[in-house]
Amino acid sequence: MDTLTISSRSYRLKDFSPLFKDMVKIRLANSSKLKIKRSRNRLNNSINKGITIYGVNTGFGKLSEIQIEKTDQELLQLNLIRSHATGIGKPLSIGICRTIMVLKLLTYAKGFSGIRLDLAEKIIQFLNKDVIPYIPEKGSVGASGDLAPLAHLGLALIGEGFSFYKGKKMKTITALDKAKIKAISLKAKEGISIINGTHVSSAIAISTLLNGENLIKTADIIGAVSVENSLSSRNVFHSDVHKLKEHKGQRDSAKNIYRILSGSKIVGSHKNCGKVQDPYSFRCIPHIHGACRDTYNSAKEIILNEINSVSDNPLVLSSGDVLSSGHFHGEHLAQSMDSLSISFAELGAVSERRTYYFMKGIPGIVSPFVTIKPGLESGYMMAHVTASALASENKTLAHPASIDSLPTSGGQEDLVSMAPWAGYKLINIQKNLTIILAIELLVASAVNSLGFSKVKPARATGTILELMGKICDFNAGDRILKTEIDLITDKITEKEILSKIQTILRLE
What we know:
Order of helices and strands: EEHHEHHEEHEEHHHHHHHHEEHHHHHH
Number of strands: 9
Number of domains: 2
Structural class: mainly alpha
CATH superfamily of the largest domain: Fumarase/aspartase (Central domain)
Mean pLDDT: 96
Strand content: 5-15%
CATH architecture of the largest domain: Up-down Bundle
Distance between the termini: 30 Å
């Protein structure tokens, strides 16, 4: 089992990858334990002095001008969790929920939240006993924190609501009994500290970054298979051409495709064909895929900055002052995921165009719709239609969420980020893209099987084509294609396509 130590250091994307696969042993660094204790002491000093502190001895949002008696301050936190747990819809994945909990701990570990060490250790106990809160995906507008979903985390911590125990959904009280964990009683500020923060949006963003890295590289691989079997030119990917552009993503994509096609006899077979230019969807792969790469890297930097920041309100500063700000606002995440949505939708759009190109057939080599018996058979006609439907759906989903704000909380929260919705849309776009790429690979492999079976492909593409030959019956004519599309989709998701290429060459 992997171990992750929670401290105030900066974390990288790869640190979170194990959380999406299985349980991870979580421990809290001694230095962070000390910071948490000091922060709590500072908060207690302010409370004892009678200083007005938002969410500690006041109401919330539009009700913040109402003072709360000291005898009711713990009830205030309990009421907050219960009243704010209004999430609906399907549950977030266990991997995302684990990541939410870890991100919450990363904020606490920096020592500006004023919570007790008991609360941080309770979250760690949940993680280490595999008790994961059931968090519905819908209900957050991504400002004043991901309030509703994080309130469901709070419910679990106090023994209410539902949780997963060893992957099975049950009442939290039952899960705690099985795991031999006691629920926690919340003290001053702890309820608001649980629900204030961008941790749900950040966890979703991490999941899309981890998935996106695979999709970007796999798109280059599948694009190269299509270039080879469409009889398109390899020379357009030469480094002498692309060094004239300053975009790193473009250069990397061009380098990948040029190297993947090394040694291809199919590419060499049409060297003197007289064809001058190929369609943009082939010739401009580096420009299109490269733009997505650069957007991805820019968004990754912003998202990692958010992950390594304090996301809470109010904040207990080292000076002892307790100040309110807006560190719960998810605008950086929303705009970053909106940008990623546009980029991944575009990857799907250009993939669909390459599949469309094959529908015309290759004169003298492959019939229209890549059929064996044209007319009697429809070939891959409807597979392309499916790709078109998903590409079009992605274009709608790519509409930015961050520009669509509705004021909430009586106007106190008058411009919200919609970061969670930006993330959910991006997840769906990536799912659709995976299928679109699977269809492109299916069709390009069919073209190879029916048109170039006696010509040696590049070593790298040959490895992929060999895999496709094992799961697709290209000589069977018309058949149920959904099964093959699903199998290829799984191969992409499980990174098998990427892994096979990376055993031969290193991709940028």
